[in-house]
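User: You have something folded?
Assistant:
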Amino acid sequence: MIDCVAGAMGAAPTLPGAIGIVGGGQLAWMLAEAAQRRGVELVVQTPNPHDPAVALASRVVQADVRDAAATRLLAQQCLAISFENEWLDLEALAPLAADGVCFLPSLEALRPLVCKRSQRDLLQRLHLPCPRWFGLDQLRSTPGGEPPAPAGDGTSPSDPTPPNPASSAASTSSPSTSPGLPEGFAYPLMAKLASGGYDGRGTAVLRSEADLQALLQQVNPADWIVEEFVAFEQELALVAARDQAGEVVCLPLVQTHQHQQVCDWVLAPVDASHALQQRARNVAASLLTALDYVGVLSIEFFYGPQGLLVNELAPRTHNSGHYSIEACNLSQFDLQLLTVGGARTEEPQLQVPGALMVNLLGFDDRSPDHPDADYPQQRAALQALPQLHIHWYGKQGSSVGRKLGHATVLLEQQDPHARRLEAMQRLEEIRRIWPLPPAAAGASESVHGA
């Protein structure tokens, strides 16, 4: 169904026309908040009238996010269209682009970013460091034969041509044969669903050949990649943006911490050398420029003995950038509006010494009609803490591990070591009110995307 619904407007417009966003979740909701502050019309395409962004959108095209006919209707109301996430049907949208619909980032810029396999190919072509990997469909049953060649060494292209998915039929091993690993690979390994996985879904830790055999029998190998298991000291993230004039700007480099493969907290800025920060910015600039990318791009990194490695790319705003709403003069959502709307950007600046962002994850299952479905007692207790800002996404009901909102604490300490201690103390305050979700047995090793 396609249905247009009128919404509210904010201050005097600061861009020449409305911006369209395909998707109505929490990222679109925070974009709508930024649009209201700037007096920008935001038109949202989303299927559910209860999705978070609907309440703040100027207008709503109520339709599935992969409905290209609805996106054409969205385009009739907008200066340009952007996307909440990378789960796109690029082929269905191509006729719209051919007819002059302005997608930013462009569909061609998005093409190598919507799949982890094509992301790895892109990183290799640009000689940007990433974990060594191979396609699961490249494995061959080798009861004594030669092992397959790796798809990539993490730093340079070994074969710029992506492996042929048609070969996947021959890649599934029977229980009586041994799928030989590419040279230089050993267990443990990390298997990832190439498209559609997020927050730990679509991943599997392979600790032995038995794990590999089990995975091969559960999934289509053409849909998965396998990476070396990276020993890292920190996980880092960078949100960058490029405007239509080619100017690249970045938010501060941050540290992220995961719980059961879901982002738990983010500390901004990370205490890192200038050289490391510049290396991360150079990676972002190389990607944005090579793709002629307009919009916001988020990069997850591993940092450890191998140096800085790109883990994943997200062609959108990102959980690791939410702190910027309160902590910076320009948030990641401001950057998305400015770049897509045709305005010039400027380098975002921290307005405080630092910030801690903590995700508020559901810690039990509550239906929408549960009397405490939106955790009123915990939210009230958090609101009473000093220098803490809550963003509650207004989702219907709760499930264990679901992102229901986030809290940002503005930090006061100038010294990096003292600021980290302050952040960990504030994290403990939050944890006493809002505990982490319970661990699910084997959650980090299950094939969530199978």
Remarks:
- Residues 1-13, 142-146, 156-178, 440-450 have pLDDT under 50 and may be disordered.
- The CA atoms of residues 200 and 441 lie 14 Å apart.
- The chain has three domains: 7-103, 132-228, 234-433.
